[in-house]
Amino acid sequence: MNRLEGNVALITGGGRGIGAAVAVRLAEEGADVVLTYENSADRAAGVVEHIKAGGRRAVALRADSANPAALTAAVDEAAALFGRLDILVNNAGVFPVGPLEEVELAELDRTLAVNVRAPFLASQAAVRHMGRGGRIISIGSNIAQRAVFPEMALYSMSKSALTGMTKGLARELGPRGITVNLVHPGPTNTDANPSTGPHAQAIAGLTAVGRYAEPHEIAATIAHLASPDAQYTTGTSLHVDGGFTA
Known about the structure:
By secondary structure, the chain is of the alpha/beta class. Helix content is 41%, strand content 14%. Strands 3-2-1-4-5-6-7 form a 7-stranded parallel sheet, with helices on both faces. Helix 1 runs parallel beside helix 2. The longest helix has 23 residues, at 105-127. It is globular, with a radius of gyration of 17 Å.
């Protein structure tokens, strides 16, 4: 399919995991892709080469999402490189886990900076380049909807904030033809939460389907939301969690 032919997409944190799968899927559907990364330069370069081998343009930009200047500069550079920006996927995130009493202020600040402030600032910068048909898609978490594990209050709080942002931006940007949506993945087989991890069997058992997702399964929903087929879908949260929140 070439539903995204002629579009330019920016994926934050697109060097690995769900972000890399999204970058590849959007390219397969016709988009040229810019992805940001913080530390995984080699893996980001591998994603870029994979996309180029498929005939699409791709660039990786180093940008720490906790750095507002670097993040907004990456958004502007993405638009400048390919002459437009149609799709923003707010994927970059941090995953803090620990007892409430041990959460330090620095960890609190960085979590909110990456998981909350960065999606807002990236969206703010992106809409300056978007016309009608623009798409903003953020990646939340099943933990924001069902906090079944202890020591994850900070992460849950940070991802819950994206619901309010999504609804507010959808209302504001709807008249401009820009849709804004949120995807809550369930347990997904990534480096941060591998399906072979020590607690994976228990985590998978909390889903209705009894297994982890693969990153490409999350990417498929994001590709739909990025496409013209989803032009009447905005302000909503979609759970791609195998029934974790059922």
